[in-house]
């Protein structure tokens, strides 16, 4: 596509077109799936297609990476075999002795990677409430090279001020990474708020149908730190497979439309829960009662499709509410077309700081009234 046309396109148009072009040999309009691991060399030994071997670079992955970078307004993107492989690539790019700020409200797998894999390997880290800037400031060390932020966070939807964290990071020559899985580039443009790197579990909203495991990083600049991540991607080889790339790329086309409907439904469900006598508290950044609402209003374009809530009572009561749900499926994960409900503490384990009675909802694309009816009967 003509670069000046690309530069003027709006995000919905980018989502449909970025990385797509009719196949020059067959004229196929829909993207073809390329399973070949190896690519033809010319007589002079060069690689005329730009591809050599699929661990390094492959057609469906290159197309997806183009779309991922364009959607976030980034310089480049890299697709991985899972969200966790993308997180690991960021930490693998650091040196032993480097210090990382990790939010207390974070995907439990990120904290587990730091504690059980990268801690023993020599990475230092502090777990800090990133919603409180003074605590972050107090935790900075001479070798702090990376600040990690997840906003809204899993599972309590805590909101962190991305711009303020970027300023803190850049003030000490560190970089800011935002796990933007819950919001997506449609809900929040973290690079435009000062983040250096954005991480996604594309397993979730990007794929959008609970049938692909994959992850991605998008960078603001193609600098030396990014070159190192590219080196890790191709030499470690935790790359996304062609079919996963194809599925996520296809998912991106409908991502803006899906996220708007997820958000519309989630706002309805959150308002219902917040007003229900059997609910102690509902967590959703779009609720005026949410402690991070003002910051969320400033930095988010859509409040997203994730809601969590605490029914009045103990863990057993929360599990009983989940057991009575008929339209929501009891399962982990998020971002698919179907609504899911999960008692979070029992998957995260006894060490988890998640409240005992918290239920996490991934709000799907069903009619919001049916979801509300289901929750009403389950709450009793
Ligand atoms: C699911 C998730 C991850 C991990 O991604 P996988 O694709 O499961 O490896 C990381 N961060 C957040 C916020 C997630 O929801």
The fraction of residues in strands falls at: 15-25%
The span between the termini is 55 Å
State the low-pLDDT regions, or none: none
Total domains = 2
- The CATH architecture classification of the largest domain is 3-Layer(aba) Sandwich
Class per helix and strand makeup:
alpha/beta
Radius of gyration: 21 Å
CATH topology of the largest domain: Aspartate Aminotransferase, domain 2
Q: Counting H and I runs of at least 4 residues, what is the number of helices? A: 14
Helix content: 25-40%
The count of strands amounts to 12
What's the story with the biggest beta sheet?
A: 7 strands, mixed
CATH superfamily of the largest domain: Type I PLP-dependent aspartate aminotransferase-like (Major domain)
> What global shape is seen?
globular
Any key phrases for this structure?
Aspartate Aminotransferase, domain 1, 2 domains, five-stranded mixed sheet, 12 strands, binds pyridoxal-5'-phosphate
Please give a structural write-up.
The mean pLDDT is 96. The protein has 2 domains: 3-251, Aspartate Aminotransferase, domain 2 (3-Layer(aba) Sandwich); 255-379, Aspartate Aminotransferase, domain 1 (Alpha-Beta Complex). It has 380 residues and is α/β, with parallel strands linked by helices. Strands 1-7-6-5-4-2-3 form a 7-stranded mixed sheet, with helices on both faces. A 5-stranded mixed sheet has the order 8-9-12-11-10. The protein has helices spanning 3-8, 11-17, 59-72, 83-92, 108-118, 133-139, 162-171, 184-187, 224-236, 242-274, 293-299, 315-324, 345-348, 368-379, and strands at 76-80, 99-103, 124-128, 144-150, 175-179, 197-201, 215-219, 279-283, 306-311, 329-330, 340-343, 359-362. The termini are far apart. It binds pyridoxal-5'-phosphate.
């Amino acid at each position: 596509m003509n670069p000046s046309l690309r530069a003027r396109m709006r995000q919905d148009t980018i989502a449909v077109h970025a990385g797509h072009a009719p196949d020059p040999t067959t004229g196929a309009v829909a993207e073809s799936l390329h399973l070949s691991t190896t690519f033809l060399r010319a007589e002079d030994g060069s690689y005329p297609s730009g591809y050599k071997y699929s661990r390094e670079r492959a057609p469906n992955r290159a197309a997806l990476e183009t779309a991922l970078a364009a959607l976030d307004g980034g310089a480049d993107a890299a697709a991985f075999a899972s969200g966790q492989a993308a997180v690991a690539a960021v930490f693998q790019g650091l040196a032993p002795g480097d210090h990382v700020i990790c939010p207390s409200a974070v995907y439990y797998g990120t904290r587990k990677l730091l504690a059980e894999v990268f801690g023993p390997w020599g990475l230092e880290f502090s777990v800090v409430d990133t919603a409180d800037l003074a605590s972050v400031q107090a935790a900075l060390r001479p070798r702090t090279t990376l600040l990690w932020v997840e906003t809204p966070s899993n599972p309590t939807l805590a909101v962190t001020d991305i711009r303020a964290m970027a300023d803190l990071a850049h003030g000490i020559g560190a970089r800011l990474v935002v796990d933007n899985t819950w919001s997506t580039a449609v809900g929040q443009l973290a690079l435009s708020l000062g983040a250096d790197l954005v991480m996604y579990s594309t397993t979730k909203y990007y794929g959008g149908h609970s049938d692909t495991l994959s992850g991605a990083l998008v960078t603001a600049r193609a600098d030396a730190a990014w070159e190192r991540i590219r080196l890790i991607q191709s030499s470690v080889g935790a790359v996304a497979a062609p079919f996963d790339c194809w599925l996520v790329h296809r998912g991106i086309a409908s991502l803006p439309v899906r996220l708007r409907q997820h958000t519309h439904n989630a706002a309805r469900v959150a308002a219902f829960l917040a007003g229900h006598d059997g609910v102690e508290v509902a967590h959703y950044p779009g609720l005026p009662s949410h402690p991070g609402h003002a910051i969320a209003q400033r930095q988010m374009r859509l409040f997203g499709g994730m809601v969590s809530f605490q029914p009045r009572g103990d863990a057993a009561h929360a599990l009983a509410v989940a057991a009575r749900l008929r339209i929501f499926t009891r399962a982990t994960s998020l971002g698919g077309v179907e609504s899911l409900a999960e008692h979070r503490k029992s998957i995260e384990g006894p060490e988890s700081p998640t409240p005992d009675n918290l239920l996490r909802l991934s709000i799907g694309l069903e009619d919001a009234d049916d979801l509300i009816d289901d929750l009403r009967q389950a709450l009793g």
